[in-house]
């Protein structure tokens, strides 16, 4: 007689995605996930902004096109630079 080990566990694939956070002139943290078109959110703190962008990404990856983008996203190297512009 076999014992049940409980419900089957579903494997979740974890993917790290790039987000940019910038503090705006009103003191809010604006966060963008550039791999998805128009994927922005904000928060009063960095933690709140990150929680909010996770919710946005969860919502937009309900669409097949965005789910495919996420499933195939495999960055080899990321680099962030700032430059100074003369105005």
Please identify the oligomeric state: single chain
Question: How many whole angstroms does the radius of gyration measure?
Answer: 18 Å
Task: Tell me the strand order in the biggest sheet.
Answer: 1-2-3
Distance between termini?
78 Å
CATH topology of the domain at 20-72: Double Stranded RNA Binding Domain
Uncertain segments are none
Q: Report the order of strands and helices.
A: EEEHH
Shape descriptor reads: globular
Helix content: 25-40%
- Give me the CATH architecture of the domain at 20-72, please: 2-Layer Sandwich
Structural class: alpha+beta
Percentage beta strand: 5-15%
Tally of helical segments: 2
Q: On the 0-100 scale, what is the average pLDDT?
A: 88
Number of strands: 3
Given this structure, which CATH class of the domain at 20-72 is correct?
Alpha Beta
Structural notes for this entry:
It is built from 2 helices and 3 strands; from the N terminus they run βββαα. It has helices at 46-60, 64-72; strands at 20-23, 29-32, 40-43. It is α+β, with helices and mostly antiparallel strands. The protein starts with 19 loop residues before the first strand and ends in a 15-residue tail after the last helix. The relative contact order is 0.15. It has a domain at 20-72: Double Stranded RNA Binding Domain (2-Layer Sandwich), CATH 3.30.160. The model has no long low-confidence stretch (mean pLDDT 88).
